Amino acid sequence: MTMIDWDDAADSFDEEPDHGLHDPVVRSAWARRMETWLPTARSAVLDLGCGTGSLALLVAGQGHRVTAVDRSARMVEQARAKLAGTGTEVFVGDAAHPPVGKQRFDVILARHLVWLLPDPASVLRHWFSLLRPGGRLVLIEGVWNGTGLSAAALTALLTEHTERVHHEPLSGDSRLWGKEVDDERYALVARAEPPHRHTEVVDVHLILRRGSEVLLARRAGTGYADGLLHAPSGHAEDGEDVRAAMIRETAEEIGVELDPDELRVALVMQHRGPGGTPRMGWFFEADHDPARPPRNAEPDKCSELDWFPLDALPDDMVAYCRAGLDGYRAGQRFLIHWHEDGDTVAHAPRAVRRAVPLPVAASPTGRLHHIELWTPDLAEAEEEWGWLLGELGHVPYQRWAHGRSWRRGDTYVVVEQSPHLAARTHDRLRPGLNHLAFHVVDRATLDALVAHAPSRGWRLLFPDRHPHAGGDRHYAAYLENTAGFEVELVAP
User: For residue 401, what are the contacts with CB-CB under 8 A and spacing of at least 6?
Assistant: First the structure.
């Protein structure tokens, strides 16, 4: 279209639901998207090809300082009337080279504009020069009846300027358009970070354990995966090792100060989000300390903090985080999780599984695979063994009608109430299994387990000789549960 065409279209332009935003449902849908695409802090936003100013009005209403530009004098006239009193400056000018002088912006917003440009590559280059370091270019585009610009083509144009491009499909949300659509409509959010020799962001993720539960946070106001659950996480900064990064991020996000020796490496995963670039993720495990309860220390980025059972995780999670926790639960140590561009950021239970476990370079021959214990009462065994194994670092693994299992690394323990059980109790003095023995990290932890054991169905054996029932140089506790199974806990 020419400028005259846009002037002629100005009076009827707002009749389209996604132009005028008169429908509260449509307006609310665009407002929610803008909240995820724009920074949470008050920012300088340049709206190019602003039309009658409907999106600029939403952005100004969210507290941002807006400058708007359009070539059509008639469109600008209507935009100025619509934006009166918001402090927004609206100029007549070429969106390809907006009349903003030496101003720099935190965000440049353009909707259904790039596909009209005769030389989009040079225009994008100029737009990036108008962004402050770390700023965002928010482009809303599509392909209509074969006309327009595909997400793949526009992403390719952006790779000259940045490696961080977030692709968000919009066609499936009819609320944005006031009707169902079947063509390609999307948004790309590109960060003003120039490309360089390939490097990968290193991120860190905390698996904070409270028995069989893990702590998850619901993202909000970050511009990525908002509304979805994720483990407390962040990325390593320049010159910072991954353990130090995890300690810092834990303090910043949930207000818990961890000591280095409280962290254990759980999993390393290389992952890539839809349309994104690869990242290297380190998952650390730590135990919850009731004396240091977690809290939501970043309410501007998190709307919820809660505990969830590891063996029944919710589906509304970030996909790669869910894959990491599933891999952790399965005893995997190294994973690749590579999204295709059409995948969703959210975990999709029935979608193709993208997680690929990598085997470690050691032969499994000769290592213990699992131990199976038959018990007369599954519910009782689940409570007693579940507590003890959870305290010892095992994670819930399998569930079926007659049994449960808990895993640590590539070894697991099974308790089963088999229909073929020949006796109702276990006699450890008969030939067969006498007892299981587990390492405990230190004597204080062993003493704490012994103190809590009676309330969990375990009684202390040989109390007159505890903790040296195994000899003067052997610090251990011998426990027996209701079914007669004995466990030895050994501390250094």
Answer: none
| Cα four-point dihedral sign 264, 267, 273, 277 | positive
Written as six digits, the tokens of 385 are: 């063994």
pLDDT digits 0-9 by tens, 121-138? 999 999 999 999 889 999
pLDDT digit string, tens, across residues 410-432: 789 999 999 998 888 888 888 98
- Phi and psi (nearest 5°) for 58? -60, -45
pLDDT digits (tens, 9 = 90+) for 263-280: 999 999 999 999 888 999
State the pLDDT at residue 195.
60
